[in-house]
Amino acid sequence: MLTSDTSGVTLYHKIRERHASPIYPYSILGRTVHIVFAEPYIRTLLDNSPFTYGVGRLKHKFFQSFMPLNVGVSEGDAWVRRRKMNEHVLNTAVDRNVPYTYSTHLPTNFHQFYELGQMMMGRIVFGVNSAVPPDVMNVFKEANNIGIFFSSHSPVSKCTYRRYRQYISSAYHHPSSNSLVSYIQNDTTLNEDEVLDQIPHWMFPIIGLFTGTIPRVLLLLFTHRMFTTDERKLRRCILETLRLNNPVNSTFRTALHDVSLDKVYSKGTQFLIINNPILRDPVIFPHPNEFIPDRWLDTDLENSYYALMFNQGPQICPGKDLVMQLATNYIQYYLNQLRGYNVEVYPVIDTKNIPQMINICEIKFSIQPYR
Known about the structure:
This protein is α+β, with helices and mostly antiparallel strands.
């Protein structure tokens, strides 16, 4: 079934109320998946990925359409090699901490933040001072098609794939300085196809960061009258925003052989962790629907298997530190430009009950000089 419950919170609690099992089978898109509720089993799945538990079938089909050798769908020795390369590139970017120049015109609505995301992705990944050509970006639009789950054919046209591949191949062979592609090592353990299939997984998360996460952080900061530019405080604010509005609301895993959890499951069994309800567990996160950044003063909490904003275990997001750095740097810049200005926000947020998913298309800021 398809559900309008985009965060899975309603589904999660509905099943939990009816069934006491720590792992429960449920039909999604005509296929049975086993929803994992208990933290010990969540920990087991994540700690043993991707060797005992591989990528879920849905994610595998999406990636197969244009980046089949990406680390996100890799297993075994191939995963180790590709993960090492991704960590090198993304950690080098953190160490360099390139001081990007931003437009003095601050974005105030979805369209403007989307343009910013396109521009920043071009700069960060490819070192260009313009957005990546639309015909290259069409590969993401064509791949993001629900029909992919019901067909054996790729939704990405040959023409779109060719243009996309030509662009990233040229960038790889002729990299601009201080771009992610310029940090790729000449590693003989990866062939060119493997290298190129890592690049798109740097592209769309950066667009999402500037289009979705940063506007939500700003909305919550303005709503709560928090105008801090302190790096440590902003880091806590970003983590809390991602806890409340996590863009990755599910984690699928496939058993690569027979496994024993609460019972024995056969090879090929699909497991599902619904992230967002766990991120609002009132036992772990008191006042779970409120924006309380200081809860992250507890560093053990960030490393727990309830803090699933970037996942946990060996497959924790390799770009976590870069995402936090990029977001912090831009929010500091944005807030510093507002000295002497008043900001009004839309939508108005109930501070006692932050929505499960703030619609980024509705976010608007009105910036006016103080009178």
